[in-house]
User: Fold these one by one.
Assistant:
Number 1:
Amino acid sequence: MNIYYAPPSQINNGFAELLDQEAKHISKVMRAREGDRLTIVDGQGGRYQGSILMITNDAVQVKIDKSENVPPSDPRLVLGMGIIKKRDRLEFAVEKAIELGVSEIGLFRSERTIKKNVRMDRLESIAVSAMKQSLQVWLPTITMYHTLDDFLASYTQAEWLVAHEKVEKQDHSFTDTDSDTVLLLVGPEGGFSPSEIDKLTDGGATTVSLGENRLRTETAVTAFLSQFLIQ
Amino acid sequence: MNIYYAPPSQINNGFAELLDQEAKHISKVMRAREGDRLTIVDGQGGRYQGSILMITNDAVQVKIDKSENVPPSDPRLVLGMGIIKKRDRLEFAVEKAIELGVSEIGLFRSERTIKKNVRMDRLESIAVSAMKQSLQVWLPTITMYHTLDDFLASYTQAEWLVAHEKVEKQDHSFTDTDSDTVLLLVGPEGGFSPSEIDKLTDGGATTVSLGENRLRTETAVTAFLSQFLIQ
């Protein structure tokens, strides 16, 4: 795959500079040469094509000759997820959420979360890889919040949907929305507590059932986001 | 979690025998005692409750006092998946498919699959764990087929749906079906080849788009099955 990532700060005046892992990959793994063409995404909607001007182990300079700008998703889907204890499952949830088109991910400790350190650097690296792998051009942000309340405070204007087993009336049209931002809330292992559910619905959230099966958190994340794939 | 698995052959006349890993787990990890209650599922719709009569490291005898029979899913969802090269992703796809309610899984090598040995014993073990974890009582079968054709030959009466990027007309009602068995076909990394797609559609398959994003095989599996969660 000939797609590389460079943040906008490394792309100026028709030239791009690839550093660190990207540069190492190009020089040592791909064994690219001057003149080889590649594609660069900047994580902010920009996709560029160009030719390599110069390669060292630490930096690759590219002359850009084609560029396009892809608008962000509309509506934006924001995933709010209770932290998953097992790292591989958490990383999986993040990777899948990005493939499925999430714009932002918020991780929070909820009442039922076992406290744990999270390797944010690994998650950010996974986010970059997932963006490139899925041919996307917007790099989702991944933010850790101390509490569910802190997370919700950042999205007061969004439409809130929360995955919950007990749903009084299933509104099948939850994927049709007028909002430009939709929050998809998935509780931690064990689900949201009753008081958390009350707080969410008091705040205007709609509860959404993901069917009859009991789903692990990472499975609920993918199932929830998958409802928005087909419009 | 107090749920254990014993195939029907180990359940007779009001008694159940748990062996191997199940017995070890009960005796060494749970340190259960005579009289403790537990739940047993037989993978064929049977769910039993009873009390432990006798425990050794190798076998646990249970006296059953409650039993129920859960009918199989209707329609049955059968997943046909090109083999995924990386073992952790393949195992993930199997685990997620079972949580999401699949009845049977067929793995096949298609034109674009890199040939590889598959640890079927690990997949079967994952299937048992996923069944128990998701509180289900039917144990999905996992079968390896030499070719896509061999797999399809086992399901000539089913409705065939194949996930494909290029879909002329998206029929949104593909989750409404009259068939008792629906085949969900997901190609290997790289997707199905054009000739495989032709063979499938000539055989009556409907192509279904899973949206605009490029999805890894295991993500496509979860996205596809997730469309059937909410009826």
Number 2:
Amino acid sequence: MENTDYIEFFKKDRYAALFDIKLTEVKPGYARAILKITEKHLNAGDVAQGGALFTLADLTMAAAANANGRLAFSIQSDIRFLQSAFPGDILYAEANEVLLHKTVCHYHVDIKKDTGELIAIFDGICYRK
Amino acid sequence: MENTDYIEFFKKDRYAALFDIKLTEVKPGYARAILKITEKHLNAGDVAQGGALFTLADLTMAAAANANGRLAFSIQSDIRFLQSAFPGDILYAEANEVLLHKTVCHYHVDIKKDTGELIAIFDGICYRK
Amino acid sequence: MENTDYIEFFKKDRYAALFDIKLTEVKPGYARAILKITEKHLNAGDVAQGGALFTLADLTMAAAANANGRLAFSIQSDIRFLQSAFPGDILYAEANEVLLHKTVCHYHVDIKKDTGELIAIFDGICYRK
Amino acid sequence: MENTDYIEFFKKDRYAALFDIKLTEVKPGYARAILKITEKHLNAGDVAQGGALFTLADLTMAAAANANGRLAFSIQSDIRFLQSAFPGDILYAEANEVLLHKTVCHYHVDIKKDTGELIAIFDGICYRK
């Protein structure tokens, strides 16, 4: 598939779509997505829910992994929350491939504000069918 | 707060609420939540999005941690996806406190189907204000 | 191989042997090991070095995984340090299989003192050749 | 303390010393160490034991964290094994501070061969006394 085809494919991710997560670039081993924090992303403490940041990172990793041309799904992820994100913040997630093996692949995802401030870091492993 | 007060408090979590995650029990160091997988939780592969499982675990941990009476927020989490969850599956998350220190606390969360099948395991650390 | 054969095989682990880590039970998906903390295991702060606890957990997982009869090696591990271990402490590590898939397998390892106090928890994923 | 004082201090880490791990640079939030893989670092499969790589990363993080001038000890670490290391390989670990909060700090450590090949990646959280 072309870069644009993968972006179309991941629009089928209803969970991510419901949260306005948008993939802006996808190529083998790399993907970038954007999310603007609004009311619907807030937890009881009025900051972005950890699950919103996790979902942003997870979708970005999934796009980078699947763009290698074989179905890949996550088997483990680790996320570290460094700063809170607030309503109005525009977050960018960037997934880079750390290693592509025959059956497993590793990714690192940085989530930053448009100011460049690092909000969360994510590392994940996918299994390739 | 009483058990029921914490359940009320976490209804303010708009992100979790939008996903129909419901806390069913909350006490200091322990919480239990339920989620029925529906169309809105699916990824492009038509199984529950990893972010939906993460959010279920994260909210359950947050409830168990905050029920100790001091504001606690997650600083790191690790999740392992063992089995896929499909539309119609009813998932139960149970958070147990592993360790409660003065400023940090550790939790383990199991996510199981009502059949008892283990779907995902989650470990997290919270910082206590 | 028999239980005792695996114990013999892992005696070839020179790194673990140099640290007096001893496997006491090995069967498919389960292993148990013991380590007595002595001077050689201490860090600059005079408590057991995190690497000593990690190595104890890692060897125990490796034994449990390889006892399934196919070569398995670790691709990712997460360890949480709950309490310090001191000279004279006798630590027991117990590895249990969480999931055995065709090419990957998941393990959880608890490290406890002989008093039953939980010292560290470890989760790991192995790749099966 | 001066850079050299921290290097002296960590020579008291008997566990790391027994494995010939040597800190070559230490400053607040940053440290670098070197390890040459020899017979003593091997597991039953004749490659460097995961615990040897973990200990190399853990010591490097501890040096970077403590160089901030307050006692810091690890509470959680995640390591991903990307490539095997063999006898004769010279490994370099480099720890960089991701975030320094009042009571917790985050580090990332890369372990590379002198050829530049990435062997393992490590993320850890320390608690500051």
Number 3:
Amino acid sequence: LPSMQTSGCKPCPSFKLREVASMYFTMIAVFLVILVVALQGSAPRESDFPYKVPLDPQGLLELSWNVSYPEQTVHFQLLVRDLKFGLLFGMSDRGEFENADLAVLWSDGHNSYFGDAWSDTKGQLHMDSQQDYQLLGARRATEGLYLLFRRAFSTCDPKDYLIEDGTVHLIYGILEKPVHSLQAINISAIHRGLQRVQLLKPNITIPELPSDMKTMELTAPNIVIPSEETTYWCYMAELPAGFPKHHIIMYEPVITAGNEALVHHMEVFQCAAEFDSFPLYNGPCDSKMKPERLNYCRHVLAAWAMGAQAFYYPEEAGLAFGGPGSSRYLRLEVHYHNPLMFKGRRDSSGIRLYYTSTLRRHDAGIMELGLVYTPVMAIPPGEDAFILTGYCTDKCTQLALPAAGIRIFASQLHTHLAGRKVVTVLSRDGRERQVVNADRHYSPHFQEIRMLKEVVAVFPGDELITTCTYNTEDRSRATVGGFGILEEMCVNYVHYYPQTQLELCKSAVDPGYLHRYFNLVNRFNDEEVCTCPQVSVPQQFFSVPWNTFNRDVLKSLYSFAPISMHCNKSSAVRFPGEWEKQPLPSITERLREPVPRCPPTPGPRPAAPVPLDLGKLRRD
Amino acid sequence: LPSMQTSGCKPCPSFKLREVASMYFTMIAVFLVILVVALQGSAPRESDFPYKVPLDPQGLLELSWNVSYPEQTVHFQLLVRDLKFGLLFGMSDRGEFENADLAVLWSDGHNSYFGDAWSDTKGQLHMDSQQDYQLLGARRATEGLYLLFRRAFSTCDPKDYLIEDGTVHLIYGILEKPVHSLQAINISAIHRGLQRVQLLKPNITIPELPSDMKTMELTAPNIVIPSEETTYWCYMAELPAGFPKHHIIMYEPVITAGNEALVHHMEVFQCAAEFDSFPLYNGPCDSKMKPERLNYCRHVLAAWAMGAQAFYYPEEAGLAFGGPGSSRYLRLEVHYHNPLMFKGRRDSSGIRLYYTSTLRRHDAGIMELGLVYTPVMAIPPGEDAFILTGYCTDKCTQLALPAAGIRIFASQLHTHLAGRKVVTVLSRDGRERQVVNADRHYSPHFQEIRMLKEVVAVFPGDELITTCTYNTEDRSRATVGGFGILEEMCVNYVHYYPQTQLELCKSAVDPGYLHRYFNLVNRFNDEEVCTCPQVSVPQQFFSVPWNTFNRDVLKSLYSFAPISMHCNKSSAVRFPGEWEKQPLPSITERLREPVPRCPPTPGPRPAAPVPLDLGKLRRD
């Protein structure tokens, strides 16, 4: 039996934070023989697993994966840097450890097992009656143990998670003591956490890049990451004077080695052209020292989040920057997630832009779909899934889009803290035709620009309907629309070409009909609500007694009352036309929910964990 | 190969009605060899298939079946009296031939096949990818061909019908021409029809019957069945003078031989004790000649519908009849269904009562649950599944039921023509505990008294919640509650013991809250509805403009507004107490929809029809 030593905790500054008990198991000799399935040939190449993300803040667990759409399967390669007595890896609706779908490797110190398990509403683990995490192999390397396994997107096992487009909440747990059975694992007592990723990356062919392509790095200038859980770092950069118009055709992250688990997401914003200059600030975005003017740097040029790869513009389009009429000032924002409060860690992460002066055929544009930022759109408190819908109507697209239409190739969904799902659907002649972007496990903490799997063509007369689902179970008063962090938004920033004048295509309920709602609530509930005109809409919402009737009628109002449309060239300039009291788009035919395809060959039934000979795991 | 002649159309008076084309195929020689599965041993005994029903009005197709709850399977034996080129047998939601689940036997004249098929929304047939109607055998007899096959209640194939408790709509079709493939069957061009049955009969042990049991037959006096599609026949009978109190402990149908397909359902009613005598009428119930007083004969003593067997009271109880305080007059009502308009058919069908003078421990009682007959409960027009709910509250059961509770052992669901589903659930301490009776394929044309699979114990403080689902897609104005055939009811007559004073435990929305609804609709819709107090509730409902908002708000009202309770000793006498503006029972925990169990060994996948050697079928 080949022997294996622990590989010495290379990135291990969290040492002090470990519990004393776990110190016991630090040095283990692992005798490793794989009985089940040996990896065919040698170690898989890195290109076999194009996507990679650290699971835990220390980087002990590193997940790589690939996606096969023909097979409707994900292959996972999990690197375990410091194996103790096993680990849990899995998926759940929003990262919770209850009702989760888990692959578990566990050892009693002598024998090791791998199995597909699930946790019930109390977090108790059970072996799954259908084994759908299929172990393909395990491999020892100096850096740790590699586990290779596969999972079909859909297993048709009701205990399993359905892998869908959009965000997937991955969960992990580390077993630091021997366990004698799966059932003996106390899931609330282990070192555990969650990581959000887009598992089902689109399968996009990379467009050809021009020979005159240049690069520009916007990176933090060797800063010290604050020893705080959450930091948004702001760094201002300046384009050279007279920098002419270019097209950004690609960008990618630049991450300082060793900080992969800390850099959560990054964005590059262009500042407003109306100001000649901006102060060159370098510091936390929420610092009192941050100059006020940086709030005018909000036009997104590039955005990256953990697990994302390089972003390529379609070959017909590029994002214009530089040249007259655009600001020379750029703001880099880096979100550091440092839950273990590492101190003194230096970082120079940022984004590398690839741009060309050979302009492509089309400028790319960004359009806002969804709801206007107004308090008339509100969510009652204590709702687990309240839906608000924003419309981009046929009348607006008729007026603002070219006859040849536009092509949407990417999308960034946005809500504040109560957002749980966001979906935009394209409707034509009253029939839903295509999902533009859907995230049924949306998290406000994970807002990526995502390439669409398929470019969506939108023509004059089409309707774009954006639906956001909110959870306000933890709130005691109504959540109204607005800019505040405890107010809500429902936005889909779609990236498209060719650029048009249309920047905003959003709606809100007609305020007159909302006034009728308050009157109705007032009369029906014996005058408890003050509807005096001098009272603000939020105040009126806050005074509604939220019984089931008033909740239901608000829903009915939002799905009946006419809307006020914002069909705007910029946030302040509307297209000419009548945009008040517009009828709600009527949908005569809805898209069917896709019926999940079941795998042709389900795993063994009933439950049978796979024994793994990892040798004797012992305390040192 | 054994040869088989057609058995000559014994009950074949419909001969004239056949299409000329079909005359071609009347005489066929069938050479019958069963390749697939020979019946084990000899022909199955009659007791193997305790339930029997004719499918078509001529009785060409006769279905027998049994139910195995341990195996969750139904075994069918289908007798085909005059086989031509095959037949269809199946199930669908409400008897339609679209989206149906079908077993098909078809022949091109040379080869015959049996397979599990389904029809799409256009009625086109397709072979099912999973074969769940499993052919077990076929057998030639003088009376025709017997096909024996089985079907699991639930197959987990989305194309298959889920066999549930309550009404099942069976459909059949007869292939009168050779067909070369399943796909070639034009389902709209064949002789076809539907039959409603309760497939999943409860598995009840028959109580011991006393030695002094007597019988009394209430049968039509050799009447001539009118040559009309639908006849309700009324026949009055009289108990002997001084007939003392007895207990009915069982009853069963008496059907004149040959009329099995015509007698649809029968009921025996006792007349009101307040009248000393009733005219002894014998004739159609809707005749102008029928004396008015017969409307006072409405107390159900016995009810039977096609496919039902004998009805046994539980051994602790019997239904009282005779004795002082009860009328000596009984009314038999027979519903004849004669779509082929047979003429001159004589009939003496009716019900045989088994009764004893050795009274059992308890009198059985009948209680009405559901909605009060009042127009305040209404259904908007154009609804495909509008739900109304009637409550029997904790306050009423607290007052009216004995501490030891009552036992419900049977139930008869009742609505008028728009009813589609009826469900009664027992709730205790706000938690739904048990389904009392549920029919998710309820038809107003098939109202049986059904024994419950399990006796339901109801204690003081329990709540009984009855939910009816209506379809008003064919109506242009609101359907209000009431006695009229185009008005609606939502009732569950539950049969229970020991008898209590509680005869009615029903509810309706508080009229004051309904008035607020009309006011609200009025204001919200710019004064279109007349809410002047002199206008009747139906008139107010008829004037509501039925936009989505007004529909939604009516639903919200019904699930929010307090109720007026009828907790009554008889239809006019309430129990003492405050019954107006009562709070709606609140349900904190709902019963889970049962997850259908899939069969352990699904049929062959993919589709493979079973070839049957029925010899050469030829035109004569």
